[in-house]
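Handout, section B. The chain below has 211 residues.
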Amino acid sequence: MATILYARVSTSDQTLDHQRRQAEAAGFHIDTVIEDHGVSGLNVRLTDRPNGRRLYDLLRSGDTLVVRWVDRLGRNYQDVCDAIRHFLDRGVTIRTVINGMTFDGSTSDPIQKAVRDALIAFMAATAQAQAEASKEAQKAGIAYARTAEDGRYRGRKPSYSRAEFRLVQDMLTQQAGTSAIARATGLTRQTVLRIRDAPQEAERVLASWGM
């Protein structure tokens, strides 16, 4: 029985090492790492990714698939639901680093199955909604940046990088406190609060500065 970490990084600000360190810090002992770089989770299905397809070939009954969160499998609602259910039917256990969720196909109780499937559907829908919101924020930021080239003021340059922005979001998802996040990222507590309270605006500012 193997424990396989699937890591997907879609931008230069994300790293495989970060996802592996998170998994190991959460107590996972990883046997194999499968990674995909520069692949959109919204538009490219797991089976169509260079290494995503390998999961279907490698995973066997009794294996554990570890992902940082379900959005690493994809950000398309139907694709994520289909992939998770396929692996569960094969006897694979799926575990997330964030929030420590565990999904398996061991239960035969119809009520428990319904609750499990509803939770999977909710998480998949959340992943797609976040991706679409982020995409719209980036479009708005790019459009704003183009008008700025004509002499309009873009506002103050953000004090955080895109990598720091993503780390703050990750830690917020794990319900870390703002003071703890500030210490971990080196950002001020006020900056963390701005990102927490207005994440789309924070991403738009990054995009407007081409960050």
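Note. The mean pLDDT is 83. Compare this with the example in section A.
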